[in-house]
Amino acid sequence: MGAFLACDWGTTHLRAWVVEAGGAVRAGRTFPLGVARLQPGEAPTRLRDEVRPALGAEALPAVLCGMIGSNLGWIQVPYLDCPVDAAGFAAAMHPAPDSEPPAWIAPGLRGPGPTAAPEVLRGEETQVFGWLAQDPARTIGTRLLCLPGTHAKWVLVEDGAVVRFVTAMTGELFEVLSRHSVLRNDASVDDWQAFAAGVEAAGDGGGLAARLFSARSRVVGAGAPAAETASYLSGLLIGAEIASVPRLLNAAAPGPIALIGEPSLCGWYSKAIEQVGLTALTYDGGEAVLAGLIALNAYRIA
Amino acid sequence: MGAFLACDWGTTHLRAWVVEAGGAVRAGRTFPLGVARLQPGEAPTRLRDEVRPALGAEALPAVLCGMIGSNLGWIQVPYLDCPVDAAGFAAAMHPAPDSEPPAWIAPGLRGPGPTAAPEVLRGEETQVFGWLAQDPARTIGTRLLCLPGTHAKWVLVEDGAVVRFVTAMTGELFEVLSRHSVLRNDASVDDWQAFAAGVEAAGDGGGLAARLFSARSRVVGAGAPAAETASYLSGLLIGAEIASVPRLLNAAAPGPIALIGEPSLCGWYSKAIEQVGLTALTYDGGEAVLAGLIALNAYRIA
């Protein structure tokens, strides 16, 4: 396998690593070049003039995943329909136009969702394929993965293939409610006890619009400190997600839920998952996406 | 019964009516004097110097309901615990300090909710008591009422008493998601077909954070027009409320759901209720609160 430039190019940031021929990572860096901050058509020049020189990667082929493959990015790479495994996914990578040295852009995935609309994702699949590549035993049997974030993704994997997934807008609901609603708060989630009360209040996850009001009524109707609101609200939203989303996937967790993401956020998810009697194992999202890009590159040149 | 000044004094507006001794309404007017717009301590002078002269009501006693009885209003009148009927509610009205002629401020209600936190409301109870007063037959048996709005209230009434209620933050969720999230839209709900698709997508109301994402994925993953997003999102949120909130109240609708509120919003609720196989009857919220204030005044001087 050859040396290459691995890029997780998302909405807000671009994370890039130089991977040597033997698989060792020589350098890695995050750039404030998310596709939401780019002018149309700007992606190739930013990669060539800023990212490559900063990492000494002027001559390397590149593999890119994430929103860079959307209509906001470099070129729109169509969604692949589930089920999809890593080999099939790698084969659908699209050569980037106007790139020398060459770059390949990963597609997104599309699958059936809990409504008539399809589910879509772009970028998280590479974390999933990376997590699978980190331990080949994971490609056997059924696995339930949760990738927390602004739009949390729950992914069901069977024998190494993504068969379906669901997106929960938990992080974004927390943001907009914390900033713009009657549940306004300082967004600092730091109180384990209030968080646990929120998870408890989530119940079976039904009636969320009603359960949410308890974040207000516990303060005005029962004297709870307003300073607890961020932690309680976070627990309520995460608790409702955990209680209801696996059901939407028709996925009884066959073993521990694999939590892949930012370690501190995964810690809160892990706490909530344990509180409802399930188990979780946590994996670093950055390491997973890098492993995924390395796996895609290996398939590309195989 | 004597002539009086009836005031529904809420967060954003004050609606006032002069009611003659025989019960006829002589004048009515809305003032931009909601408690959220008042300086602390300002309520009595605004009532005396602006509202009373505008309606020729300088000499009348007044009955006030709504957020004017909260800590943002004139004086904080404690919540009454359910069950509460109209007579008990009227007896708990609080004489307003520093008011000549006299004014009485209604309390709010508190009851058990779907979480460990109590449920609270302030103002909607007067619409409920007004609706009951409009037809004494309504005080017999079990009734399920829905008052749509920023914070929709679902109220269970047994033999004329409010026994419990639930608040759904449906209107506020629509607002903050339409303005500040990836589901950003022009907030014009005008497409019956997209609305109905949203109601359908709400399913049993569980997994709301996941179902919400379909408002995005149907556009990016299935080519639905972005212009439908407001209507679809409204249907999804209202559909989820209707599917899940009555269950939180342990209330199988014993007959038609009584929808009390702004006629156009009630029209959308009515459409969604019919779509899921239930029935609703719609009543004007302004008429209901006025009838409630008249009933409270009658109890006061009885």
Characteristic key phrases:
24% strand; alpha/beta; globular; 302 residues; 6-stranded mixed sheet; homodimer; 15 strands; 10 helices
Characterise this structure.
The structure is a homodimer of 302-residue chains. The first copy, chain A, has helices at residues 43-55, 86-91, 124-134, 170-180, 192-201, 208-211, 214-220, 229-248, 263-275, 285-301, and strands spanning 4-9, 14-19, 25-31, 62-65, 80-81, 84-85, 94-95, 103-105, 109-112, 118-121, 142-147, 152-158, 161-168, 257-261, 280-284. Chain A is of the alpha/beta class. In chain A, the strands form 3 sheets. Chain A has a 6-stranded mixed sheet with strand order 3-2-1-4-8-7, sandwiched between helices. In chain A, strands 6-13-12-11-14-15 form a 6-stranded mixed sheet, sandwiched between helices. Chain A starts with a strand and ends with a helix. The interface between A and B is large, with 52 and 52 residues.
Assembly category: homodimer
Question: Going across the major beta sheet of chain A, what is the strand order?
Answer: 3-2-1-4-8-7
Number of strands of chain A: 15
Number of helices of chain A: 10
Q: Uncertain regions of chain A: pLDDT < 50 for 5+ in a row?
A: none
Please give the radius of gyration of chain A in angstroms. Answer: 20 Å
Main beta sheet strand tally, sense and closure of chain A: 6 strands, mixed
Structural class estimated from helices and strands of chain A: alpha/beta
Arithmetic mean pLDDT of chain A: 95
Largest interface: A-B, 52 and 52 residues
| Global outline of chain A | globular
Determine the strand fraction of chain A and express it as a percent band.
15-25%
Distance between the termini of chain A: 8 Å
Q: What's the order of the H and E elements of chain A?
A: EEEHEEEHEEEEHEEEHHHHHEHEH
Helix amount of chain A, in percent?
25-40%
